[in-house]
Structure formats: C-alpha cells, structure tokens
Amino acid sequence: MAAHAKISAGLLMYRRRAGELEVLLAHPGGPIYARKDAGVWTIPKGEPNPGEDLEACARREFSEETGIARDVGALLPLGHVQQKAGKVVHAWAFEGDCDVAELHCNTFELEWPPKSGKKQVFPEVDRFEFFSRKAASEKLNPAQVELVDRLVTALST
User: Fold this and answer.
1) Rounded to two decimals, what is the model's pTM?
2) Is the dihedral of CA 51, 62, 155, 78 positive or negative?
3) Ordered structural domains, the chain, with CATH
4) pLDDT tens, residue by residue, 111-138
5) Which of 9, 18, 103, 118 is least enclosed, having the fewest CB within 10 Å?
6) Peptide bond into 113 cis (omega under 30)
7) In this predicted model, what pLDDT tens digit does every residue of 11-66 receive, in sequence order?
8) What distance separates the 2 farthest-apart alpha carbons in the chain?
9) Number of other CB atoms surrounding residue 124 within 10 Å
10) 11 and 57 in contact (C-beta within 8 Å)?
11) Are 7 and 14 in contact, with CB atoms under 8 Å apart?
12) d(Cα 146, Cα 81) in Å, to the nearest integer?
C-alpha cells in the first residue's frame, strides 16, 4: 500500500434468502452518482479518524450510514482491496437482516450546480439494497467484488 493512499473501512452485511446469499450494498448519494448504477455501489464504509482502529471505524461508519447500532456482533475479516483511484478499503462481514426502507444516513453539503455559489445538502447514501452475489458483482465498485468473493469462500469452508 502506498503511504499516501486514502483508507476506508466498512462492513458487509449478508443474509441468506431461499438458500441464496445476499449482501447489503449502498448507492452513493449526491448529484454525481444520481444517474449511475453499475459499478458505483459500495459496502457502507468511510475514512478513519486519526488514530482510530480500522474495525472500530468500520462499525462507526456502518452505523452512521445505515442507522443500525454499532454492536452487530462478531465480525468476519475480509482483508482489504485497492480501488482503481488508489483508495484502500478494509472490510469485515457479519450476518444480519434489515428493512432497507428503514435505513438512513448522514448528509453532506456540496456546491451544486458547480460554481453556482449555491450549497445543497445530499444524503451520503441515497438507497440501500440487498443483492445476490451475481447482481452484486455487476453493481459494486469493481475492486470491491473481491470482498464478496472472499465472503463466499469464508462461508463455504
């Protein structure tokens, strides 16, 4: 890993439905991603505070992005992946379930349209959805597909 690479940590919630594994993914909020779908979804994640333990960061970020309490129980380490732009994503998985319509996240402020001088508030995540492994591989940021593959491998051993 490059010393200057940005780092994030997140959690991948999974469930089993009708014998099939499904994972919870987040669609980034804001106008830049509004019309994008394939390859832009992500696990709920974020950057650690200075000196923050990565697992603690993953739990905090998952809670902030979903509204689900931080204490989700034991976590299965999935390692890390490096995205195309250089960001390194550390991830853990846990089994759980939720009603995606009940999830809510933090917001951010952005000047929009650009150079308009107008600030608008957008959700960090505009929607959540459970996807099968196959669908997740099409929706996820390409580097993060490996995290789902590692989850599948870990659960089959």
Assistant:
1) 0.92
2) negative
3) 7-156 (3.90.79.10)
4) 999 999 999 999 999 999 999 999 999 9
5) 18
6) yes
7) 999 999 998 999 999 999 999 999 999 999 999 999 999 999 999 999 999 999 99
8) 55
9) 17
10) no
11) no
12) 7
